[in-house]
Amino acid sequence: MTLLLDRPSQQALLELKRVLIVDDEEPIRRLLGYMLQSHGYEAVLAADAREARQRLDETPFALMLCDVNMPGESGMDLVSHTFRQHPYTAAIMVTSPAGQRGARHGRLRVHHQAVRSQ
Fold first, then answer.
1. 21-39: per-residue pLDDT in tens?
2. Residue 28 maps to which CATH number?
């Protein structure tokens, strides 16, 4: 799918520094939010996919950091939905090592993989 934007819309997206952080662990959400805010980004936090969808419908985001494994709807399902409904929002999947929760073990792993909107 090719989406074309006029020049003002393209510039607005380039300047947008709003990031949605979706993680069911509050300490991880807060840590990521603090880190991004200290570098000049606006961080909006969501505890699950339902809350993230509400935030996405309220305002545009340049980027979504999303936990892979969450209770209820998975991060992968949320990212798929986001690419369909909000094609200009990029996504990075975040997870802790297998079988461990990041906040309790002080570890966080960021996976990067090319994901295309189909």
1. 999 999 999 999 999 999 9
2. 3.40.50.2300
